[in-house]
Amino acid sequence: MNVKPLLILLGLALATIFALVCVLLTRGRAPSICQHLPPAQEDTQDGQSLVFADLTPEEMAQVVRYLQGNLGVQLVDASRAKPSDNCIASVDLQVPAKAEVLRFLDGGGARPPREALAVLYFGNQPDPNVTEDVVGPLPTPAYHRDVTVQKYGGKVPYHRRPTLAVEYKQIGGFLKSQVFPSAPAFMQQVMEYDGSSLAVLTAAPRGFQSGDRITWFVLFQNVSGFFVHPVGLEVLVDHSSLDISQWAVSRVFYNGQYYRDMVQLESAYVQGRISVEKVQKAPQDGDFSSMKPRAPLAALFPLQYEPQGPRYSVRNNLVLFQAWSFAFGMSVSTGLRLFDIRHKGERVAYEISVQEALSVYGSNCPGGMSTRYMDGSFGLGRYTSPLVRGVDCPYLATYLDVHYLAHSQVSRLTRNALCIFEQNLGSPLRRHYSNLQSLYYGGLVNSALVVRSIATVGNYDYVWDFIFYQNGAIEGKVQATGYPSSSFFHGDGLRYGNRLWEHTLGTIHTHFINYKVDLDVGGVKNSLVAHDMAFEMAQAPWSPEQQIERPRLTKKVLDTEDQAAFRLQSKMPRYIYFAANSKNKWGHQRGYRIQITSFAGDHIPEASSMERAISWARYQLAVTRRKEEEPTSTSIYNQNDPWTPTVAFADFINNETITNEDLVAWITTGFLHIPHSEDIPNTVTVGNSVGFLLRPYNYYDLDPSIYSHDGVFFTNEQDFTACEINPLACLPKTASCLPNFPPFTYDGFQNM
Predict the structure, then answer these.
(1) Among this protein's residues, is 532 annotated catalytic?
(2) Would you give the distance in Å from CA 206 to the centre of its chain?
């Protein structure tokens, strides 16, 4: 065989490969990793935002140690306490008085002492009660003071205490060890109960009058998405006694019929006197309620990245973004809250915070028809869930952990509980294309900063957003998802919802969300002004025999709290704003407008014995004088005693003058949810998003976003392909880089 031709061919092949490699390397180099530029903003506050910072784990531990050593009573760890014990239910930041904070922030005054608020359950004493103690100064506590009477006008009765996790565990043990065994044939043959095959969901409130602690517990198959797997059995437990051995069953409900207790149900079953509707046992994944995708993986969904790194910064609890700065925190009970919100260096709001999330249910089953969940009592902050990178927030968002102390004497960590990111909303904030007279295009991408947390309270997941826009607007938004709560489908169930599966009734319910918005527009003292429109008839000046209907501006100053309280379904002025004592260049009072987006259902009738506990939901907007003794619109104690509410918002509105005063807007938004078949496997956020906007109204002399670095403008006479004319033309150079995606991790199933 002649080897020479083979060697020649091999040499030519190698040369060809080498030439191709050279061409590829010279024609298109692989993009480099995106390089981060430092944010343009600088922190000039020198740690002032820390006055609003959440307690650290070390501070919480110091508070617990101090209370254990200085109250003169034995404190049992709340994670294992009996109702008859003393324990620390929660420890949170005691936010200093506003006047103190403003002296510190604006007037060079001393930093307010750092303090904690401890909620204490005193069950082991002659007069059991709930006490709130302020403990300070941190980090080394030396004093505590009881503020319960100061805040609520008296001691908080013990029956009002929010239910601890350990009490639910004790009730579960009571059902398993004493209640279910009293109906062995029914539980085995109908429920197919094996000791762990049923899940329990609480109703609330707990009874019909003050002092009651009698709760309906609804039974479901213990599978994935159990909320839509009712089995038809509900048990009313009287757990009002501090002696667990005295707990008892008051009623039992099964498939439309009521029984005195499980013994009577068992007797009726054995004698064949009940209508049995046996539910087919679902697989562990829940079958129809499983959220496992039903489709294979395909092309990857779009992702966003920052080619030159984040344009915002987060230092401790302070966020800086373009002209914005604000401090953030997480309340154990009410969740995400913001303080000292400034635009272009000037404070526009002192506090924006969630107050409450309320759901009122209808059903023909007892648990459903008696449910009015006030989620602040369960803990919107405590139930903030770990965020999944790439789904709950953009993959490259900044993720922050949260520490809290509740239902235990040891603080707990929720990883990735908050995310912060800048989002290109995919549409212009403003634009104009001119093809008349001069020819040009001008526009600004709508890129906004989002701060987000998601609270999973039982079946529902609430996505809480605060959004900061380049034109000086702030948006508060909540999106609801998770599973619909359900009842067992029987009888006239279709009067109360839609049938979602064979035995599942998706029950009608309302969602009401309340916010506190403490605007300080051009200073602390503001007035409330309403602008709207009315049509007037006018003669045409050029043709007096003709008439024109023309809209004109109407103006009114709302002088009192009564005038500023707008009922839920009433007509409200379309432009309502906090007005400053200063004017802009054009002689108008500088203001920030409140614009609400809501599709709320009806409020519970005011004749209801529990309505005062949720009387904030009467109003879509109520503006009151700001008072330190009215810090929140509700109380964590209202859930378990709504008949004698610890805080009744209706009492805040007493016709005081609100002209040139420090004012607070209490905003209620919400929607009616009638679950439907598309809520299976669970509810989507689309269409279930409500909230409010705070928008500059003559606050500036012109739109401040004109000073944004993101603006685009070019004329027909300019070279719009040149980078110095049009920054979009530079994208092949400035944005052709590889984002650095960190490895996916998730700690959401740790420390449950």
Answers:
(1) no
(2) 25
Closest alpha carbon to 318 in 420, 432, 249, 218: 420
Nearest Cα to 315, choosing from 44, 592, 710? 44
Sheet holding 230-238, edge to edge: 198-202, 214-221, 230-238, 248-254, 257-259
pLDDT value, residue 714: 93
pLDDT, tens only, 324-354: 999 999 999 999 999 999 999 999 999 999 9
Active-site residue, from 54, 85, 375, 465? 375
Contact 122, 130 (CB under 8 A): yes
Mean pLDDT of all residues belonging to the chain: 94
* Catalytic, out of 193, 460, 496, 637: 460
% of the chain at pLDDT higher than 70? 95
pLDDT digits (tens, 9 = 90+) for 83-124: 999 999 999 999 999 999 999 999 899 999 999 999 999 999
The structure tokens 């650095």 sit at 740
pLDDT for 591 beyond 80 = yes
Domains parsed from the chain with CATH numbers: 48-154 (3.10.450.40), 165-289 (3.10.450.40), 312-421+462-520+558-697 (2.70.98.20)
Q: pTM of whole model > 0.85?
A: yes
Nearest-angstrom CA–CA distance, 554 and 600 = 27
Task: Check whether 421 has a pLDDT greater than 80.
Answer: yes
From CA 670, how far away is CA 603, in angstroms rounded? 11
CA dihedral for 281, 287, 288, 290, sign (positive or negative)? positive
Q: For residue 396, which of 316, 304, 509 has the smallest C-alpha distance?
A: 304
Q: State which amino acid sits at residue 129.
A: N
Position 13 scores a pLDDT of 52
Q: Are 705 and 429 in contact (CB under 8 A)?
A: yes
Collect all residues with Cβ–Cβ distance below 8 Å to 645 and sequence separation of at least 6.
Answer: 612, 613, 634, 635, 637, 638
Of 40 and 183, more confident? 183
Neighbours of 382 (CB within 10 A): 23
Q: Active site includes 433?
A: no
Kindly state the DSSP code that residue 228 receives in the 8-state scheme: G
378-382: average pLDDT? 97
Over its C-alpha atoms, the chain yields an Rg (Å, rounded) of: 30
Place of tokens 């701060």: 451
Number of helices followed by number of strands (H, E) in the chain: 10, 34
Per DSSP (E only), the strands in 167-213 are 198-202
Residue 162, preceding peptide bond in cis (omega within 30° of 0): no
